[in-house]
Design a protein that fits this description.
Largest sheet of chain B: 6 strands, mixed
Distance between the termini of chain B: 38 Å
Distance between the termini of chain A: 36 Å
Number of helices of chain B: 0
Oligomer: heterodimer
Order of helices and strands of chain B: EEEEEEEEEEE
Helix content of chain B: under 10%
Helix content of chain A: under 10%
Order of helices and strands of chain A: EEEEEEEEEEE
Largest sheet of chain A: 7 strands, mixed
Radius of gyration of chain B: 13 Å
Largest interface: A-B, 26 and 23 residues
Strand content of chain A: over 45%
Number of strands of chain B: 11
């Protein structure tokens, strides 16, 4: 069964360092998303990406964040200068079409120390 | 006002019980409704996906949407200990923001 895969499963980084979280969405899906979930809190939308550009972003997605689809299979989230409050689970999701189901990866747990 | 609200629980039931999980939402533009199951430190797993009002059944799971009262429900029949997880409701509209808006989740414990 097709699935969204994310790497790494856990990343520990020092405050101020750059991190790149990687995702391989389901093949032939067209819409890609990043969400985050701080421990014990709700899943929050960060950004959506379609047709090689950002289609929506939340207030959380500030200039420290960027996304890229460098090739036909990968979708990445970069955090330029990590802060302690960036510690969270980051989930990638993809959809075949905008009105269809969204499928999530297993997440990357980011710990900023 | 939160756009999607859920009782956080925990909700504890004996094995075999019928479980009722509920969400309310405030955005009248929401048209699509989903239920996800999330195990601890794992990604949300899609259980049910419905459009507009009505019922949808899949095995032991039934999703109900009542748009007039902005109320969505998930029923689990013959609950099993493996159903113990956090259940997230989510919604999106076909106008404005189209990304999923999640509730905070209800933690369910099914006791053997």
């Amino acid at each position: 069964e097709p699935e969204v895969t994310q790497t790494p499963s856990h990343q520990v980084t020092q405050m101020g360092q750059e991190v790149i979280l990687r995702c391989v969405p389901i093949s032939n899906h067209l819409y890609f998303y990043w969400y985050r979930q701080i421990l014990g809190q709700k899943v929050e939308f960060l950004v959506s990406f379609y047709n090689n550009e950002i289609s929506e972003k939340s207030e959380i997605f500030d200039d420290q964040f960027s996304v890229e689809r460098p090739d036909g299979s990968n979708f990445t989230l970069k955090i330029r200068s990590t802060k302690l409050e960036d510690s969270a689970m980051y989930f990638c999701a993809s959809r075949a079409g905008w009105g269809t189901e969204a499928f999530f990866g297993q997440g990357t747990r980011l710990t900023v120390v | 006002q939160k756009e999607v609200e859920q009782d956080p629980g925990p909700l504890s039931v004996p094995e075999g019980a019928i479980v009722s999980l509920n969400c309310t939402y405030s955005n009248s533009a929401f048209q699509y409704f989903m239920w996800y199951r999330q195990y601890s430190r794992k990604g949300p797993e899609l259980l049910m996906y419905t459009y507009s009002s009505g019922n949808k059944e899949d095995g032991r799971f039934t999703a109900q949407v009542d748009k007039s009262s902005k109320y969505i429900s998930l029923f689990i029949r013959d609950s099993q200990p493996s159903d113990s997880a956090t259940y997230l409701c989510a919604s999106f509209s076909d106008t404005g923001r189209r990304a999923l808006t999640f509730g905070s989740g209800t933690r369910l414990q099914v006791q053997p």
